[in-house]
Structures are given as C-alpha cells and as structure tokens.
C-alpha cells in the first residue's frame, strides 16, 4: 500500500499544516514562563533575554507587555501568592491565621527564590487579598492601631524568615551537610555547651515543620496577650 504524502507545495497544503501558530503572547504566558525560569535558575537566571528565549519570542516583543525585569518579578510574586489558600473567616481567628501562614510558607518553599523578594513593595491583588485577610483576622482578635501594625509585621517577618532559612538550606546544602554541621557542634561541646545540649541542628530531635508550628504558636500567643492600643 502506497503511503500518501502531504503536497510538497505550500500552496497545496491547508493553512493549519502550513504554519505552526504560536499561542498569543500574554501576561499570563510571560508570568508562567518567568516562574518556571525562577524555579530552575533563581533570580540571577531570569533576564529579559532568557525569558524571551523560553517563550520563543524576541525581547522586543516582551516590552509590549512588561517594561523591566522588576515588573516580571512583581508579577511572578503575585502569581505564587495566588496559590496560598484563603480560608473562610471563623471565630477562631488564630486558627484562620495558621491556615493562611502555613499556605504562605508552603508556597515560598515551593519557589525558593520568593522569600528574598518579599521585601519589595507588593501591591498585586493576590498579595493584598491575603494581607487583608491576615489583618481582618487580627482585628477579630482585638488588634487595633499600632498593635495591629506590629502584629502584622511580626507574623510576616516570622514566616518570611523561616521560609528564607529553610529554602536557602535546601537549595545550597548537600544531604550530609546538616549532619556534618551537627557533628561540628558536638565535637566542640566544651565551647558550645548550650547549643550541644539543646540539639542545635539535630534534625533527628525535631524537624523544620515542628519548629515552625511551635514558633507560630508562640507568636500568636504573644499577639493575643498584647493589649490593644
């Protein structure tokens, strides 16, 4: 049986077979590609040229949608915040905050480049919606005025700092590095008796998840005890 071949002339082929049309370049496509690049190569690996190559377009085409790399970073940050679940508000305001903050930490650990960017002004709708939920929960807990500002910053700094430490360690350390660090403390127990006794850097005693949860409990207790101002 003779195999039928497609017509050799471009004019004898259908339009769909003549061309492989690319999806239109949109903000969503740009941001999705940027997040992929950031996950693979970190902030330094994201340039307008590398992003254009990932999208198989010219860098000039990108500038019709975004002006600078900073624009791309701001959009990427807001996109990953969109993955943080916003729970239904309940009378258990500390529980509501726990759900939000756990999701925030998980999102940043999935994207290790993210904690280092949280200090940027973040005005995207996803970030603002979650900050609004956080502050509304704190208001239900009695926070007002300066106390509300302090509590918001304390919780944000706690989750950002914990996520940055964990993400940096996971990205840069080999599997045996933490054990070697613990062995170093143990070998110099005379110089560091408190660190040695407390199990500093000993994952076999308590892991990051446990330490994060108990630290969060402590922050929330402190917030609840602080008198409104």
Gap from first CA to last CA: 87 Å
The fraction of residues assigned to DSSP E strands is under 5%
Kindly state the mean pLDDT as a whole number? 85
Which stretches of 5+ consecutive residues score pLDDT under 50? none
CATH topology description of the largest domain: Tetracycline Repressor, domain 2
The biggest sheet amounts to: none
The total of helices stands at 11
CATH superfamily of the largest domain: Tetracycline Repressor, domain 2
Structural domain count: 2
Helix content: 55-70%
Secondary structure category: mainly alpha
Q: Please name the CATH architecture of the largest domain.
A: Orthogonal Bundle
Radius of gyration over C-alpha positions, nearest whole angstrom = 25 Å
Count of individual beta strands: 0
Query: Which CATH class of the largest domain?
Result: Mainly Alpha
Shape: globular
Order of helix and strand elements from N to C terminus: HHHHHHHHHHH
Topology (SSEs and partners):
Layout: H1 15-18, H2 27-41, H3 48-55, H4 59-62, H5 69-81, H6 93-110, H7 125-140, H8 145-172, H9 177-187, H10 193-198, H11 208-225
Helix pairs in contact: 2-3, 2-5, 5-7, 6-7, 6-8, 8-11
